[in-house]
Design goal:
heterodimer, A: about 525 residues, mainly alpha, 2 strands, about 75% helix, about 5% strand, B: about 525 residues, two-stranded antiparallel sheet, globular
């Protein structure tokens, strides 16, 4: 157990890479596929071991004390850069989500015929990058993994994508890199200023040390509020592009429409979450004061993303683009939840990330299933699929309702928690009220966000009606029902949507509660 | 009469110049190179002017020189040969990097241009290559005005001939002519500046000269500095002295272009670093206006150079021209490093300035592998398809997965993305600039913005290789060429994972011998 506690996270991060090496060495398409599948399966099982080793009580102390299974090995000692990984309530659900979705996406990739070896190798490299981002506790290491996840994604969209794949791939890369460069400047700056802190001579990249209020106080004296604000905005820019929040969202619909189905699943379910995770792991803990001061900015961005994303989704004629805009709208709840700074809202935002991970992956797969049969994605041309493919329609209905936030399914909990938390921010004693924010403004944001729920229901139901209901169309008559492989992908996702919706505490909040409480001690 | 007597007595006191072994030892690289040049020329007699024999002799000589330099334990260093040359750690590592790189270029020649080179031209080619290399070695270890000029010319003259080596190629001849004219003009400006310095302060030693700057310089001093910047800027291809670079790279053979892209620029940068640091040291760093204005000039030049390089690369359809603009951009990043010398601190060794030396060595060590690899792939593609335009790279991912993956690695490393060492080098530079605070943060921002700029055109190469289908047949890659590209790519991976040893190595060698005071009236200073 001691060994596992120390090295499990490292094994987890590099398991997919070693699988990728095996994939490159494997001969024949079948061998390549099975190697990749076994790798993702083993990675998923290994991630379940986290639950065994995880201390569920988490001590309940300050932020950082809830961190578990930490490993810290010097990497570049000259600059105090460590290979430092650890897991807490913030990252654990996302790690499990990542390994889970990667496993399903690997099954969904079974029908990739073009350069299968290259595809699977890149896919597994991507998984390493993703897990590295969620588990790093060193700013430099985080950045390396953050960038590392870009390269495979660029190729996966650019080579295996649709007709406008090259445009979509480079747009994705350029947008994200703009954000990353801002983050890089923050990273260098934080290191340089941390050299002035007594006890940290030589500087540090340790995210836990940089989130320490005492350290921040010492650094704040040297940096001045202008520099702090610039750094905070640069870091937030990097993460908001990744989330993506309006107005930095335009890369997302293009990337999704062009990406192959499994890559869309990963992109929506996991890559977007890196942005949300970055906000909670880096931007807010490192600059808690600025997070309070600029709450209105991010609340606005969140609410605009919710409403604008939903309206855009409603106007789409392309099924996949619709799901993509629905992601923008749902991720808006995450940004809003962060901005409101109440425990309920932040917990809800974290839940939203996992719930959206499950529903968006399922929805993109559902689009993929019908696209494979119809070879188009125009919502207007579909209709009556319920008659031809009743089982498929059954799964789709569950996931559509989960996405629109029907009680009992996962989407509901996230939305409601964020909205309740937003209203709670207008209550006396909340962080924002203590900061002296106008009560009406907070309530206003919350009320506007509520309309997002209605809009979501609107476009989801309308799509449901246009695609599945209505009279059977002759051109879709002989569509085969979902096969065993497709069911293997859909059933776990449906199960997760129900489980998360019915047992939100046991499945989720039991992990995050304590960590979020610790996080709030930083906000004061 | 009295003065004649003085010169006579001082000459007598110094005696005839007989170098000792102790003095020669740090210059084992240059000595072996000279021997190799003779060997290459002699090989023409014994080897029936065989190209391959000349290549093997050069390679062996370069290897021997590297081994020799590795065996030399650089001491604290000092001025040798009456101040004409300086020996120190910095020069030793620069020469090692240069010689390793040149050896790589020779290997590249074996796998690319060898087939197309006329049998019998080899000895001349390698004589010129090694001669230029010798000049570049000397550029890295002198702070004497006369020697600076000789070293720069020694590096330049063979380069002109190398650029036009494909005699029947019209583009090549035009490029060589442009190179010569441009080089001659900047040399003239430089020698004008150098003579002005001598006229102002009466010494050829920059260290001594810097201590006399207090005597005042005014406009002539500024003119002199502009002259030096023009001469060195030409070698670095810094804006506005960069116009030759894309044309020469396009016209010259791929091996010559690769050689110029790293060796010529590296030599210019090491020379400029030494000049700036010697001036800084002589002035005692303390708030000197001359040094500050020099550093600002170099920093602004660097910022403009990398921006011009990156924007110029956008429209290039020829791989060698694209790599030329890329190398201009990287020269810009390295020029930004040189702006660090202004902060020497009161420390006699100039702590901050040494970190500029370290950053430069580190960047060169990484840059060397990126460019060697990229040009090797370009050469192999040219050899197989006969073309060097971007469309000749279409479908390379299928036609030769090894070359395409390696090229992808070089492109991403040139952008500065992990997991390649280009990322480490770029972050290190940004870091050091940021550590200086104030206006250096502007340089950090410029480098950051340029990274985004550069992504687009580097990715264009990647896009063409992997995302554009082509009917072209599979490529046969020579094992030597493929191996060389693979080694470069793996080195880039290893150098990031093992960044600490690279940092330590460059840190250990980032020491320059900076003469604080040269006794006035010494023969070299006064007599020449």
């Amino acid at each position: 157990m001691g060994f596992l506690n120390h090295w499990l996270l490292t094994i987890l991060i590099f398991l997919p890479t070693s699988g990728a090496v095996l994939v490159v060495a494997a001969q024949g398409r079948a061998a390549v596929r099975w190697t990749a599948l076994v790798t993702t399966l083993v990675t998923f099982l290994a991630s379940l071991l986290l639950l065994v080793g995880f201390d569920w009580n988490q001590g309940g102390g300050a932020y950082g004390s809830t961190m578990q299974m930490m490993t810290s090995v010097p990497w570049i000692p000259a600059f105090h850069i460590n290979y430092q990984v650890g897991v807490d309530g913030l990252s654990l659900p996302l790690v499990l989500l990542s390994t889970f979705i990667c496993l399903l996406a690997c099954i969904a990739s079974w029908n990739i015929e073009k350069m299968t070896k290259g595809y699977m190798a890149l896919f597994l490299f991507l998984e390493t990058g993703i897990l590295g981002v969620f588990l790093s506790l060193d700013f430099f290491l985080f950045y390396v993994f953050f960038e590392l996840s870009l390269l495979p994604m660029y190729f996966l969209i650019g080579i295996w994508g649709g007709p406008r794949k090259e445009y979509a791939a480079i747009k994705f890369f350029l947008y994200t890199l703009v954000g990353s460069i801002g983050l890089l400047i923050v990273l260098i700056g934080m290191f340089l200023f941390s050299r002035n802190v007594p006890g940290l001579e030589g500087g540090t990249f340790d995210l836990l040390k940089l989130s320490d209020p005492a350290v921040q106080k010492a650094m704040g004296g040297v940096m001045g509020s202008g520099v702090i604000k610039t750094f905070f905005l640069l870091a937030m820019l990097g993460f908001l592009i990744k989330v993506p929040a309006v107005p930095f969202h335009t890369w997302l619909p293009d990337a999704h429409v062009e990406a192959p189905t499994p890559i869309s699943m990963i992109l929506a379910a996991i890559l977007l979450k890196m942005g949300g995770y970055g906000i909670f792991r880096i931007a807010y803990p490192l600059f808690p004061g600025m997070a309070k001061e600029l709450w209105w900015l991010f609340a606005t961005i969140g609410v605009v993303s919710i409403i604008y994303g939903a309206l855009c989704a409603m106007a789409q004629t392309d099924f996949k683009r619709l799901v993509a805009y629905s992601s923008v709208s749902h991720m808006g709840f995450v940004v809003l939840g962060a901005a409101m700074m109440t425990e309920a809202a932040v917990n809800g935002a974290l839940f939203m990330m996992v719930a959206h991970g499950v529903t968006s992956a399922a929805l993109f797969f559902i689009v993929g299933v019908v696209y494979e049969r119809a070879h188009h994605r125009e919502i207007g041309r579909f209709g009556g699929l319920a008659t031809t493919m009743p089982v498929y329609t059954g799964y789709s209905t569950v996931m559509f309702f989960a996405n629109l936030g029907l009680p009992g399914l996962c989407g509901f909990i996230g939305e409601v928690m964020v909205l309740l938390g937003s209203f709670a921010a207008a209550r006396n004693g909340s962080i924002l009220m203590n900061y002296g924010v106008g009560r009406g403004l907070v309530i206003g944001f919350a009320v506007v966000a509520c309309f997002g729920v209605i809009l979501t229901a609107g476009y989801m139901l309308w799509t449901m009606q246009r695609v599945f209901l209505g009279p059977e169309k002759s051109e879709y008559k002989d569509f085969p029902e979902v096969d065993a492989r497709e069911q293997t992908v859909l059933i776990p996702l449906v199960a997760m949507a129900v489980l998360l919706g019915v047992l939100p505490y046991g499945m989720f909040f039991v992990f995050t509660n304590t960590t979020v409480a610790g996080l709030f001690k930083l906000f004061g | 009469m009295a003065s004649m007597g003085l010169i006579f007595t001082s000459l007598a006191a110094v005696g005839p110049f007989v170098p000792e072994w102790g003095q020669m030892r740090p210059f084992v690289g240059e000595l072996v190179l000279m021997g190799t040049i003779v060997g290459v020329l002699l090989s023409a007699f014994w080897g029936r002017r065989s190209n391959a024999v000349a290549g093997v002799v050069s390679l062996a000589g370069l290897m021997l020189a590297v081994v020799g330099l590795l065996l030399v334990r650089p001491t604290e260093g000092g001025e040798q040969f009456r101040g004409m040359l300086v020996s120190d750690h910095f020069a030793v590592l620069w020469k090692i990097l240069l010689l390793v790189f040149t050896a790589g270029v020779v290997l590249m020649w074996f796998s690319t241009t060898r087939v197309s080179m006329h049998e019998g031209d080899g000895p001349e080619f390698f004589t010129l290559l090694l001669g230029a290399c010798l000049g570049m070695c000397l550029m890295g270890s002198t702070s004497n005005l006369l020697m600076i000029f000789m070293a720069v010319e020694m590096a330049s003259l063979p380069s002109y001939v190398l650029a036009g080596f494909r005699k029947t190629d019209r583009v090549g001849s035009e490029a060589a002519l442009k190179y010569v004219l441009f080089g001659a003009a900047t040399s003239a400006v430089m020698v004008y500046g150098l003579s002005m310095l001598y006229g102002l302060y009466g010494t050829l030693q920059i260290g001594e000269l810097a201590r006399r700057v207090d005597l005042g310089g005014g406009v002539p001093l500024a003119v002199a500095m502009v002259g030096i910047l023009a001469g060195v800027g030409f070698k670095i291809s810094a804006v506005p002295f960069h116009f030759w670079c894309p044309d020469v790279f396009e016209g010259a053979g791929v091996d010559v272009a690769a050689f110029l892209s790293v060796a010529s620029k590296g030599a210019g940068l090491t020379l400029l670093l030494r000049i700036l640091m010697t001036i800084g040291h002589g002035l005692g760093y303390a708030g000197s206006e001359v040094l500050t204005s020099l550093a600002v000039t170099v920093g602004v030049m660097g910022a403009i150079t990398c921006t011009v390089g990156n924007t110029g690369a956008y429209v290039q359809m020829n791989m060698k021209r694209l790599l030329a603009y890329s190398s201009i951009a990287h020269a810009g990043y390295m020029l930004c490093i040189l702006s660090l010398v202004v902060r020497g601190g009161s420390d006699a060794n100039g702590v901050m300035a040494n970190s500029a030396a370290q950053a430069l060595l580190l960047y060169l060590a990484v840059y060397l592998f990126m460019n060697l690899g990229a040009f090797t792939v370009a050469g192999l593609v040219q050899r197989e398809t006969g073309g060097e335009r971007l469309e000749d790279y279409t479908g390379l991912g299928r036609r030769s997965p090894l070359l395409a993956v390696c090229m992808g690695a070089f492109m991403f490393s040139l952008v500065g993305l992990p997991p390649f060492a280009g990322f480490g080098a770029k972050v290190y530079v940004m870091w050091k600039l940021g550590a200086n605070g104030s206006w250096w943060w502007a340089l950090v921002a410029v480098i950051g913005v340029n990274t985004v700029f550069s992504l687009y055109y580097y990715l264009r190469v990647v896009r063409v290789m992997f995302m554009v289908e082509s009917e072209k047949p599979e490529m046969v890659v020579s094992p030597l060429g493929g191996g060389l590209a693979l080694v470069c790519a793996v080195m880039l991976l290893v150098m990031l994972v093992a960044f600490e040893p690279v940092l330590n190595l460059t840190g250990r060698y980032a020491k320059l011998h900076l003469p604080r005071s040269v006794p006035t009236g010494q023969v070299v200073a006064g007599g020449l």
